[in-house]
Design goal:
- The structure holds two protein chains of two kinds.
- In chain A, 11% of the residues lie in helices and 37% in strands.
- By secondary structure, chain A is mainly β.
- A five-stranded mixed β-sheet of chain A has the order 2-1-5-3-4, covered by helices on one side.
- Chain A starts with 5 loop residues before the first strand and ends with a strand.
- Chain B has one domain: Aldolase class I (TIM Barrel, Alpha-Beta Barrel), CATH 3.20.20.
- In chain B, 37% of the residues lie in helices and 16% in strands.
- Chain B is built from nine helices and twelve strands.
- In chain B, the strands form four sheets. Chain B has a five-stranded parallel β-sheet with strand order 5-4-3-12-11.
- The radius of gyration of chain B is 22 Å and the shape is globular.
- Classes of the chains: A mainly beta, B alpha/beta.
- At the A-B interface, strand 3 and strand 5 of A face strand 4, helix 2 and helix 3 of B.
């Protein structure tokens, strides 16, 4: 039986993913290219942990990339 | 007979967390008219570090574009100092710092924890906790702070080996608005101190360096100049001049005039 789809938020944008999706799935679907870093619900997730990080309904994912700064 | 000026080759590196830097100027990378101007300013000023930040990248799937800023950072080869700009809580700052460490592959972090959006004043009540936790996590923390002596002492107490008091609110260009507090801070604490934020003119940078501060970090004063590249060079020179003056030791100030030409043997003295 296929798990129900789940809805998460990536950088405030809604994203539908298959049930049992991981952070690696969300990153791939979002399409961001390195370099970037990720956090789920304000918790940093090292890039080596993306495939082992399951997502839950309503999770808020932040993907951030280098920009200029003072 | 003329004497030859002595050439001083004393090593006067800026040392932060045990790492040596040839320059005492740290430069921000934001608000320049173009990436080319930023690049030229950095090449001329040769800063010790270049600050950078992290922001959400919003895109539709399949529309990812190369990060030109990242490519420029790699090409310039200047050590990057990531910041936590825009963070309003300890949790946000800590998470952002960890993300920055992974992206930029550096333990350095300019810790910004904003307590007031109008003045961009640091959240002095929570800054110490954030710094303490990041130091325990292995970061080399450069906290952006006010010139408050007790706050800065607490930052040192939790392990900050350098601190970055503001001269004035970010982007104002006002220069040091509280010289008494800044100079008191310099006299009381021995850790390296970089004056960060609020400098508008090279003379401001020179002034704080003359007071014994160890370096300056600035962005807007260069980026918004009519000629940012030339201004970057001016700040680099002013920072060096102020440092040299501090090391040279200024003359004591006098209330009354002191003739610089010898009075003894003055011609026509008391002859009329």
């Amino acid at each position: 039986m296929t798990a129900a789809a789940l809805k998460v938020w990536v950088n405030n944008t809604p994203l539908e993913l298959p049930g049992q999706a991981t952070l690696a799935d969300a990153v791939a679907r979002f399409g961001i290219q390195p370099p970037f870093a990720a956090a789920v619900n304000l918790q940093f997730v090292p890039n080596t942990r993306y495939p082992q990080t399951p997502l839950s309904e309503g999770d808020r994912i932040d993907l951030i990339a280098p920009v200029t700064g003072g | 007979m003329h004497s030859t000026p002595t050439s001083h080759t004393t090593d006067d590196a800026l040392v932060l967390y045990g790492q040596r830097f040839a320059s005492r100027l740290l430069l921000g990378s934001s608000r320049y008219p173009s990436p080319d101007v930023l690049q030229a300013a950095v090449r001329l000023a040769q800063p010790a570090m270049l600050t950078a930040s992290l922001r959400r990248q919003n895109l539709q799937a399949g529309e990812a574009t190369p990060n030109h800023f990242w490519a420029m950072l790699n090409e310039l080869g200047v050590p990057v100092l990531p910041n936590t700009a825009g963070c309003h809580s300890v949790a946000e700052a800590i998470t952002t710092a960890h993300m920055a460490r992974e992206v930029f592959a550096t333990p350095w972090i300019k810790l910004e924890l904003i307590g007031d959006d109008y003045t961009l004043q640091p959240d002095t009540l929570n800054l110490v906790e954030a710094a303490s936790r990041l130091i325990k996590d292995g970061f080399q923390v450069l906290p952006y702070c006010t010139e408050d002596l007790v706050l800065c002492q607490r930052l040192v107490d939790v392990g900050c080996q350098a601190i970055m008091p503001w001269a004035a609110p970010i982007g104002t260009g006002k220069g040091p608005i509280n010289p008494y507090a800044l100079r008191t801070l310099r006299e009381r604490l021995e850790v390296p101190m970089l004056v960060d934020a609020g400098l508008g003119l090279p003379s401001h940078a020179c002034q704080v360096m003359e007071w014994g501060f160890d370096g300056v970090l600035l962005n807007t004063a260069v980026a918004l100049a009519l000629d940012p590249v030339r201004m970057a060079g001016a700040f680099a020179n002013a920072t060096q001049a102020g440092r040299a003056a501090f090391l040279a030791g200024a003359m004591p100030e006098h209330h009354s005039a002191q003739p610089s030409t010898p009075v003894l043997g003055t011609p026509f003295w008391h002859q009329t």
